[in-house]
């Protein structure tokens, strides 16, 4: 990210600019209030033509509504933010030993869901995607270059533009990898 | 049981010395919460950073003290040298 016009920015955004961090490398915890505020601040600057973004960040800002809230079944939800079904991680004590709780593990659940706005109706929909590894066809294989290539080709990722379809989100999962604490690939598609 | 990305030595009741290796995969240092308050005293900083939820990261320097309230998300960001912390846990269940 780079400012191309003079603009007043928050201390948080200034930190990202100083550290040369992309929006996809948001330093705040994915799902925290500052995490979403960063997207909203950058979106406002981008719409004013005041900030230069890389391709992935343009996707977050112009293609998604991440940072925005919508109503789903009577509750406010964050839009276009994939959530692992594995849950959160805590450090805890079990029988005198430290244990990690609910850390997504290899072989564990690889399912995600996302709330997104249906452009036809304007309503928010919940989209589930991914599969359990060990037999699931969409198991997360971010480190496997050949698997990513085959997936992108098989699912025609470049032409998937319907955010209400599971395939849209499965194709774009690598872009969320860092934010979600998954392995890094450097890939835009699978 | 799961391996943690640090070596731990118990040095007293509720008191531990934890050593972190800078060559550990940074992805190991995930955001997490603890089930008790913790008092951290930095023995060696090694260029590591600490970050509370909704705050910017700050560098841990030798002799720094950090309090981590129970239930507050936090994480470590690896530096270039070893990080050594004295950790005191304030839990009746420890």
Summarize the structure in words.
Chain A has 190 residues and is an alpha+beta fold. Helix content of chain A is 28%, strand content 19%. In chain A, the strands form 4 sheets. In chain A, strands 5-8-9 form a 3-stranded antiparallel beta sheet, covered by helices on one side. Chain A has a two-stranded antiparallel ribbon with strand order 1-2. The longest helix of chain A is centred in the first third of the chain and has 15 residues, at 33-47. Chain B has 94 residues and is mostly beta strands. Helices cover 0% and strands 47% of the residues of chain B. Chain B is built from no helices and 9 strands. Chain B has strands at residues 7-12, 15-20, 33-34, 37-44, 49-52, 58-59, 65-68, 74-77, 83-90. Chain B has a 5-stranded antiparallel beta sheet, with no helix packed on it. Chain B has a 3-stranded antiparallel beta sheet with strand order 6-5-8, with no helix packed on it. The two termini of chain B are 17 Å apart. Classes of the chains: A alpha+beta (190), B mainly beta (94). The interface between A and B is medium-sized, with 25 and 21 residues.
